[in-house]
Amino acid sequence: MAPILLNCLGTEHSEYIEQEQYVKNPHLDSMEEDILYHFNLGTKTHNLPAMFGDIKFVCVGGSANRMRTFAQFIHQELELPGNVDDIRDICEETDRYSMYKVGPVLSISHGMGVPSISIMLHELIKLLYHARCRDVVLFRIGTSGGIGLAPGTVVITDKAVDSFFRPQFEQVVLGKVIIRSTELDEEVARELLQCSAELSGFPTVIGNTMCTHDFYEGQGRLDGALCSFSTEEKLEYLRKAHEAGVRNIEMESTVFAAMCRVCNLKAAVICVTLLNRFEGDQISTPHDVLVEYQSRPQCLVAHFIKKHLGLIA
Ligand SMILES: O=P(O)(O)O[C@H]1O[C@H](CO)[C@@H](O)[C@H]1O
Ligand SMILES: O=c1cc[nH]c(=O)[nH]1
């Protein structure tokens, strides 16, 4: 079946920008109430503009603990009043996602994989719309497997690519394949690289990020419950990915980039590499080192936010 090409570069994208509206759904305005089921929030039960209207930065990542830690960290970095231990999970009534609000920053977990982050993004983007937020920037702060990079290197995504190294995301809608572009905001990526130079605490590169639908076979690992390929075939695939500009592999970037792009939101993906996939598959790095690695994308984004809020030059 021929795929439908939507929201690629060109006039369609500039039309979206003109509309300056985050949602792309004509049905929403005729709904009496919108229940954001997985957040346990709704337009009738909550005053979303009062709760979220001042949001300017949204940071998302897979793990609930990481996103609570990030909320506490950004609270300290922004020198906000109050105790970090009092920051509460806005979604505590549901165990699907965790959400923390710290001043103009929202920190949300999205679980693992495309379906999980995609559900979260639908509800987040509607939340920003209902709350009448403007000029919001989204960041995914995650972990990844590196290709030819020293573990601990932070990769700022240039293009999010699929398992065939194509900068696109395929969504099946009513039995038809819709293809969406996965280009991210170049200026935000450049600014983040500059933040890294200013912090000078860890190596950072801009490169393509491959998004897969599986951690094991899908990322060419030899250590899953199933494996049908040889070590040489694995390395050959990774070499091809590297030639295509891929510097890391994770599991959410394509849908994140595609949905932000079509919904007119500036976005960036910043993932630390936990290992060099040319050297192995198992993540054997000690826990304390992994925790420090995970803090690196958080430091970069905190620096970016502080600069944008005028807290540092
Ligand atoms: O570190 P996070 O955000 O969870 O993301 C990465 O880690 C998970 C796999 O361990 C996948 O979801 C991958 O994208
Ligand atoms: O190798 C890795 C490490 C973290 N996350 C991934 O998706 N892959």
Tally of discrete structural domains: 1
The small molecules bound here are: 1-O-phosphono-alpha-D-ribofuranose, uracil
Uncertain segments of ≥5 residues (pLDDT<50)?
1-19
The biggest beta sheet is recorded as: 5 strands, mixed, barrel
CATH architecture: 3-Layer(aba) Sandwich
Q: What is the CATH domain class?
A: Alpha Beta
Domain Nucleoside phosphorylase: 56-305
Protein name: Uridine phosphorylase
EC number: 2.4.2.3
GO cellular component, one term: cytosol
Model description:
The protein has eight helices and 13 strands. Residues 1-19 have low confidence and may be disordered. The protein has 313 residues and is α/β, with parallel strands linked by helices. The radius of gyration is 19 Å and the shape is globular. A hairpin with a 2-residue loop joins β9 and β10 (176-181). The strands form three sheets. A five-stranded mixed beta barrel has the order 7-12-11-8-13, surrounded by four helices. α3 packs across α8 (287-308) and α4 (114-130) packs parallel to α7. The protein has one domain (4-308): Rossmann fold (3-Layer(aba) Sandwich). 1-O-phosphono-alpha-D-ribofuranose binds next to β7.
